Amino acid sequence: TQLAFVPLLFAVPVSVVPVAVALALMAGRLVGVCARRIRLSRLLLTIGNSWFAIGPVAVFELAGTAPRHAGAGLLLGALAAQFGVDFAASVGRVSITDGVSLAAQLRDTWVYAIDAALSGVGLLAAENVHSEPVAALAAVPLLALLAVFSRERRQRLENLVELNNAYRGTALVLGDVVEADDGYTGEHCKGVVGLTLAVADRLGLSAERCRDLEFAALLHDVGKIAIPKEIINKPGKLDPHEWMIIKTHTLEGQRLLDRVGGFMRQVGAIVRSHHERWDGRGYPDGLAGEAIPVESRIIACCDTWNAMRTDRAYRPALSHEVALAELESGAGSQLDPRLVEVLTEIVAPDRSRAAEPLHAGSALRPGVGEVAGSTAG
């Protein structure tokens, strides 16, 4: 971008730069529209990608100075304005369309360092073109090389998106399988997803970790499809042997997700540890404290809350106040105390709906020594 944008600031009147940038971006997309790789409706959306040009133009107009006469301070101010307007314009769009939190987007601002580095090259090209127009020919090979790199990068990204969509489709199918296998488990897993993402947003987890967490929350009980139904649906108390079988669902879940491959292996590692306890008395590995993946700790908290607030075969849903007290009592023993505090802040406004239990079908029984209902997930 900077290799073309910076020289453009020097080549044409500053006031027409935003329009020129918008037209150039649309012209670039027009090839994709003609090849039917891009929908015509997206061509108009490209105009929104030219907002970054307004920042430096505004700086030069307010200063009443043309770019070629600007000092280093003004040029740096124009560059900062470009990045600031670009970030401000994209933050709302990305938050709405992709659900990426502000904190996650702030962590990705390092990408502006690439544009900042290329700005110096663009400025050098602009100065040379102004004094020696023939010097523009020297930049042609570089621009051609960057075009090749850009095309290859775009192809890799398209392939990655296609692969991620395939993994996502597989995960959703597995979620449907879980729900078809046991109505309560499927609905419970879906209920846990929203809570886990709310906690992740409060913690400012990266987009990649939120993606893994979302799938892990949806599939945290996928291993239960390998557990005999007579144990899953047993109305009475489980004997020690049956309880040992139930506890294998975390390992079965990881094994199943590992077979899917790709980033689902990371999801499987989260699923494996979602029944570990903060005090080290959980399963399957007896991990404690910070040794437990934070994603697994988040699911453990949200799993516990959702289970307590759901009608079960052996008891009705706990009231909001009772469930909240149970949740807080598990802090520091079963659950990460910091995450309990975060989750409490999220569910506290729900007091107005305290009498409304969540709905589910069949159920499992709470485990020995754990917060009531916490083993349901």
- One letter per element, helices H and strands E, the order comes to HHHHHHHHHHHHHHHHH
Main sheet, how many strands, which sense, barrel?
A: none
In percent terms, what proportion of residues is strand?
Answer: under 5%
Distance between the termini: 48 Å
CATH class of the largest domain: Mainly Alpha
**Domain module tally:** 2
Helix content: 55-70%
Total beta strand runs: 0
Instruction: Tell me, rounded to a whole number, the average pLDDT.
Output: 78
Which secondary-structure class do the elements indicate? mainly alpha
Note the overall shape. Answer: elongated
> How does CATH name the architecture of the largest domain?
Orthogonal Bundle
Kindly provide the radius of gyration, computed on alpha-carbon positions and rounded to a whole number of angstroms.
Answer: 27 Å
- Poorly predicted tracts of residues: 352-377
Number of helices: 17
Question: Can you give keywords for this protein?
Answer:
377 residues; mainly alpha; Hypothetical protein af1432; 2 domains; 17 helices; elongated
Question: How would you describe what is shown here?
Answer:
- The protein has 377 residues and is mostly helical.
- The chain folds into two domains: 2-131, no CATH class; 160-376, Hypothetical protein af1432 (Orthogonal Bundle), CATH 1.10.3210.10.
- The protein has helices at residues 2-11, 17-34, 40-45, 54-63, 72-98, 102-107, 112-131, 140-181, 183-203, 207-219, 229-232, 240-246, 249-260, 264-272, 294-308, 320-329, 337-347.
- α8 runs antiparallel to α9, α9 packs antiparallel against α10 (207-219) and α9 (183-203) packs across α17 (337-347).
- It is elongated and about 85 Å long.
- Residues 352-377 have low confidence and may be disordered.
